[in-house]
Design goal:
Largest sheet: 7 strands, antiparallel
Distance between the termini: 80 Å
Strand content: 35-45%
GO molecular function, one term: aspartic-type endopeptidase activity
GO biological process, one term: proteolysis
Length: 257
């Protein structure tokens, strides 16, 4: 899996046998300070490796990195003086990001993706709007998934309606936003307004026939009951209308009605 740290492009090793994310000290030192969100030095901490050896931990850090299939994310890492690979992604990252490992293709794929605006949006106060936003190119055409809220939409006070969408050829999916605030909300281009999750066996779909009762044999009543009065709809009187016309003698009364 490839990712970028500022101008530095690195290939990460996905290790399902590691419960933590590991970064070598040399790689950590080469990362710019703006990518280092936090760092805590550990003086008396060790971890046990797969071969049962122990190694001292330099510290822990939160790093901001960019993954092409995910966008910009923050990740917690352990800094080790010596590692078998510069950057190792463990099960901590895999579980938090719903990564699926396909050993038959020797690949990994995310079950979630960011849904981002493709142009600047302006949402008026107390309004509900359906906007079109893009999913990444790696999302397969025709794939069905669920769009739900994102951290950015929550930070702006927006409500996102959870909905099932199908990825079309242009990869633009509808997102329903509710601006419940009393102020105009401006969303710049390229912001994540929703999260796309692949529709899998974790979701259960129910047919409408099983959940919504059908209405049959409807009788139209000419009487309307109310707590205060009773209204009766009588048959319309067409006598005044017929008096305005001259009807042929051979026209029967039933035909004139």
């Amino acid at each position: 899996m490839f990712f970028s740290l500022d101008q530095l492009k690195v290939a990460a090793l996905v290790d399902s046998g590691s419960s933590i994310n590991i970064m070598s000290k040399s790689l950590f030192d080469s990362v710019s300070d703006k990518q280092k969100l936090s760092f805590e030095q550990l003086d008396c901490s060790e971890i046990r490796l797969a071969n049962n050896d122990t190694i001292k931990v330099t510290g822990t850090a939160k790093i901001k990195l960019y993954i092409e299939t995910r966008g910009e994310i923050d990740i917690d890492v352990y800094i080790l003086p010596v590692t078998s690979h510069p950057f190792i992604l463990g099960t901590d990252y895999l579980m938090k990001n719903n990564v699926v490992l396909d050993f038959s293709k020797m690949s990994c794929q995310l079950n979630t993706a960011n849904v981002q605006t493709h142009k600047r949006l302006s949402l008026e106060p107390n309004t509900e709007t359906i906007v079109w936003a893009r999913v990444p190119n790696y999302i397969t055409l025709g794939l069905q998934g669920v769009c739900s809220k994102s951290k950015f939409s929550c930070s702006k006070g927006l409500l996102v309606a959870k909905s099932v969408v199908t990825v079309p050829y242009n990869r633009k999916v509808p997102v329903k936003l509710l601006n419940q605030t009393s102020e105009n909300v401006v969303i710049p281009k390229g912001r994540t307004i929703a999260e796309f999750s692949v529709l899998n066996n974790e979701y259960e779909c129910a047919s409408f026939s099983d959940t919504i009762p059908e209405v049959q044999h409807v009788d139209v009543s000419e009487t309307i009951e109310s707590p205060h009065s009773k209204f009766t709809c009588s048959k319309p009187d067409y006598s005044k209308v017929k008096s305005l016309f001259t009807l042929p003698e051979n026209l029967q009364e039933t035909e004139s009605d």
